[in-house]
UniProtKB/TrEMBL annotation:
Its cofactor is pyridoxal 5'-phosphate. Catalyzes the transfer of the alpha-amino group from S-adenosyl-L-methionine (SAM) to 7-keto-8-aminopelargonic acid (KAPA) to form 7,8-diaminopelargonic acid (DAPA). It is the only aminotransferase known to utilize SAM as an amino donor. The keyword Transferase applies. Substrate binds at W50, K265, G299, R388. It is found in: Cytoplasm. Belongs to the class-III pyridoxal-phosphate-dependent aminotransferase family. BioA subfamily. Keywords: Aminotransferase, Biotin biosynthesis, Cytoplasm, Pyridoxal phosphate, S-adenosyl-L-methionine, Transferase. One of its GO terms (biological process) is biotin biosynthetic process. This is Adenosylmethionine-8-amino-7-oxononanoate aminotransferase. GO terms for molecular function: 2 iron, 2 sulfur cluster binding; adenosylmethionine-8-amino-7-oxononanoate transaminase activity; dethiobiotin synthase activity; pyridoxal phosphate binding.
Length: 421
């Protein structure tokens, strides 16, 4: 029996309606930008396995460091104990994060990094004897699948069964260059009528909303308003972090820095699950007290796992290397050229790009999980490209090490797919 067949017996896949999608493709090996399946087919991983393995799969620089670490210290409790990989990682991260970030708190995945961010913001006010119980978030945001993260997520198709149990959230539209005053008025009304604790947002690019992009200027206006009301700002950089927007973090395109930043996905270069929530000194100080209950009583068993920290450190070293920075510039220019080539295609409604994130909307009606979407996905896989269209949006977010030839193959396959529609 193949893995694909054995899989069906016991496995329950994430974000999957198994009655409609019973089949999974079994991947047996990954190297650089290439995935190998059990039938001998290869696929270019044009979405970097959900934006994680940005330096290529099984990158030997990273795997060697982790293998070495594995011989010395594997796992240890991070309450009352500490270790070199965590210390080094905190130093390396604070070096590249926006200037106001001072403290690093560990968890296990993107959702928990947001959960931690929300809890930090709520307790920040609580510790200062202010009751604030409402959050603000963008329409169509996505922040993960745990309850706090779901509450701030606006993509309701995932939330239906759970909505009755959510934290109270008020939604605002993303800035589009014309609605800044409208958003500001909405914010004023919301903050007059509610005790707002925090604003949680994906800066510049909303990944799960099909790579929806907004401008830094509009976001800066929102952040400035939040600061004036002591509304804690929580930037969810789980998707945008580590170079994808052309800077190390999307927040670095802004004038106003968020109080809290959530990181995961590319943090560990695609090797191990881990997340970080960083914050400013001011947030941290609100938890310092002779009263033990004012501390932050949140912790995961695998917090700051030394192997994951080692992978993250190696990833940050690569991110800062001349080689990767050149690659990022090369991909940005390559996508721009492809955009010019495809934007007037009759099947293309719109193109957009931020850094190495490229997206095109098809001028075709399509449901997020409809048949046409499935047909497109199959076309890409049959042609050796791993791309996952989000409704009628096709996006590319490839590892930084993708070659020009591989990029051209991705572009050509997208162009060929348009002909089939
Ligand atoms: C993927 C993602 C999350 C959730 O991360 P998980 O590791 O899947 O829990 C949260 N926020 C954003 C912006 C994401 O892209």
């Amino acid at each position: 029996m193949t893995l694909k067949e054995r899989d069906k017996k016991h496995l329950w896949h994430p974000l999957t309606q198994h009655q409609l999608h019973p089949e999974s493709i079994a991947i047996v090996k990954a190297e650089g930008c290439t995935l190998y399946d059990e039938d001998g087919n290869t696929y270019i991983d044009a979405i970097a396995s959900w934006y994680t393995c940005m330096y290529g799969h099984c990158n030997p620089y990273i795997t060697n460091k982790v293998a070495e670490q594995m011989q010395t210290l594997d796992q240890v409790v991070f309450s009352s104990l500490t270790h070199e990989p965590a210390v080094k990682l905190s130093e390396a991260l604070i070096d590249i994060l926006p200037d106001n970030q001072e403290k690093i708190f560990f968890s296990d995945n993107g959702s928990t990094s947001v959960e931690v961010g929300i809890k930090m913001a709520l307790q920040y006010h609580f510790n200062r004897n202010e009751k604030r119980n409402v959050l603000i978030a963008f329409e169509d945001g996505f922040h993960g699948d745990t309850f706090g993260a779901m509450s701030v997520s606006g993509l309701s198709m995932y939330n239906g069964p759970f909505e009755d149990f959510f934290i109270e959230v008020k939604r605002i539209p993303t800035p589009d260059g014309t609605n800044n005053n409208d958003i500001l008025n909405q914010l004023k009304t919301i903050s007059e009528n509610n005790k707002v604790a925090a604003f949680v947002y994906e800066p510049l690019v909303q990944g799960a909303a099909a790579m929806k992009m907004h401008d830094a200027e509009g976001l800066d206006i929102i952040l400035e308003f939040c600061k004036s009301q002591n509304i804690i700002t929580v930037a969810d950089e789980v998707m945008t972090g580590f170079g994808k927007t052309g800077k190390h973090f999307a927040s670095l395109h802004l004038n106003n820095q968020s109080d809290i930043i959530c990181l995961s996905k590319a943090l560990t270069a695609g090797l191990l699950p881990m997340a970080i929530t960083s914050c400013s000194q001011e947030i941290y100080n609100a938890f310092l007290s002779d009263d033990i209950t004012k501390g932050f009583f949140h912790g995961h068993t695998y917090s700051a796992n030394p192997l994951a920290c080692t992978a993250a450190l190696a990833g940050i070293e690569l991110l800062q290397s001349e080689d990767i920075q050149q690659n990022i510039k090369r991909i940005i220019a390559s996508h721009q050229a492809f955009g010019g080539r495809i934007k007037n295609h009759p099947k293309v409604a719109k193109i957009r790009q931020t850094g190495i994130i490229f997206a095109l909307d098809l001028d075709v009606q399509m449901e997020r999980y409809g048949n046409l979407r499935d047909q497109l996905f199959k076309f890409f896989m049959d042609n050796g490209i791993f791309l996952r269209p989000l409704g009628n949006t096709i996006y590319i977010l490839a590892p930084y090490v993708i070659t020009d030839a591989e990029l051209e193959k991705v572009y050509k396959t997208i162009e060929a797919a348009l002909v089939t529609l």
